[in-house]
Write a structure and sequence with these properties.
Layout lengths: L2 H22 L1 E2 L19 H5 L9 E6 L19 H14 L4 E6 L7 E2 L7 H16 L4 E3 L5 H4 L7 H8 L6 E2 L3 E3 L12 E7 L7 E10 L5 H5 L1 E3 L2 H15 L2 E7 L2 H10 L6 E5 L14 E4 L6 E10 L2 E11 L8 H22 L11 E2 L13
Parallel strand pairs: 1-8, 2-3, 3-5, 5-6, 9-11, 11-12, 12-13
Antiparallel strand pairs: 2-14, 4-16, 7-10, 8-9, 14-15
Length: about 400
Amino acid sequence: MSRRILAAIAVFVLSAAAASCKATGGAVGDGDAHANDGPPRVTLDDAGAKQLLGEDDGMQGVIFYGAELQGSIKDCGCPSDPQGGLPWRLGYTEGFRSAYPDVAYLQVDAGNSMADQIDNTGKLMSDQAVKCDWVVKALDRFGFDAVNISHKDIYYLARFLKPGEWEKAVAERPVLGRFVSANLEPEKPDSGLIAPPAYVVRTMTGKRLPGGSVRVAFIGLTENNPNLPQHTGFKVVSPDVALDRVLPKAKAEADIVVVLLYGGPEVAQSLSRRAVGQVSTFIVSHPTSRDKEAQLGPVNLVYAKFQTKQLGELRMMFEGKNLATVTNRYVLLNKVLPKDPVAEEMAGEADKAIKQAQLERFNNMNPPAGELPVTAPPPADVPTPGGK
């Protein structure tokens, strides 16, 4: 067999492996997760803002987590006390970087980052898609490391999960390759759809870390929505089945494993009991878990706050590459903090684009496919481990 033929076969095998990884396995990592961040854009000089940093407890690495953006990168819009939003989130995390330059960090979202208002055929309304476009643009600009795909998010993301379309979308917005779900998959093999990556491995680096780096695998899971197959062509596999299926591979590629779960606290607790020694932490997002207290132990359970009005901060200490101790805290995102100027400018541009899309929709200039807008219906059941 000639060298040219052997080379062609090698290229084909490598290409097929890469495509398989993107479709059904782990997302491809890219070295130091934040090597190209540049100098911090914000410093926390005001006494009130500086106080939000808390005490330096010797932390070596931090995972900043939030959830339920619901298609908005600006604050909650509450008239008396606006909270949340990426400008204040990045204002804090950039200030944190400035204060603690040797601490490694990662940025994640635990689910329901997308808007999900649909028409009566199950298709996303036109202005909702514009909201989602801006969320993806922002998460890409700020280098988010992992984003969980909930059953609410797949209404938007399904449009990219097709052979050829997926590769183009990830090339344009690399963060899409870090949107993960281990239990969302096409209902029918011949549907022309592909499953999103089940997990992504990110390397956080910092001078305080033993050896300078730690690899973290983020696995995505969601509760069920029985309407998904009809509306999107995707189905939800039971979380325990999906976790068992993907965990050995994710664990082999990383030093620690973190699960991003969109589901109730009882699902998180049940899954955590079967993951002792394999998963370090579950970061949980759900309307029923917003006010739950963190449970730190053999497997840590921490809960994201609604619309990330309070940013979760998981501080970590390591022994070698093994997680030794964690501390969980929340930082209120409001006017006490300065806003990140780049995020603030982007939020303003997004607001204008969304208002224009809403104007077009309600003036019937860009009509939806159906007539009656509704919110994507809540799941009829929340799957428990072992359930269908």
